[in-house]
Amino acid sequence: MSKDLYGFPDRPIKGWSNLSRWLGTCAILLLTGLTMLTSVDVVARYWFNSPVNGAFELTQLMLAALIFVALPLTTAARQHIEVDLLANMLGDWADKATVLFAGLASMLVLLALSWRLAHHTLKLAEDGAVTNSLELPLFPVGIIASLSCLVSAALVLAISLNAMKKG
Q1: In this record, what's one Pfam family (predicted)?
Q2: 3-state SS class at 84
């Protein structure tokens, strides 16, 4: 599949640049926080024999948030893994059909994932689920994950529709 086929971000979605900037800033802050937490924890553990209390839980929550904050950015940049074994053998029409089919399938999977994550997040919030030692609530990460999948599904749809319009 040729990169110029997609037509995105040449014609960006309205409001995407602001959301993209905000998500990028969040990803940078999460990655910086993870790096600092890990560094301080390692130094405290080996030099002072006193690890950071709850570092494991914080790392888990921050890593989960980082993955889902970066998902729409990766989707918009078309940086997901693609295998185009037949792209050179197929004509333009088949190439576009493949892009549309893959986009629609990806969108449906992301929508289903968003729905299931939202359902699970509601259960976490109702149950008052928290981490073991720091007792931090778990539902905020679920909200981030569900919204991230929803935004990614919208981006996949926009990319697929732009691919069909182009050419």
Answers
A1: DctQ
A2: coil
- The answer as to whether 2 is a domain residue is no
Domain range for 105: 16-165
pLDDT along the chain (167 residues), means of 10: 44 73 96 98 95 95 98 88 69 76 92 98 97 96 98 91 73
Phi then psi dihedrals of residue 10, to 5 deg: -55, -40
- Would 42 be classed as within a structural domain? yes
- Residues with Cβ within 8 Å of 42's Cβ and at least 6 positions away in sequence, in order, are none
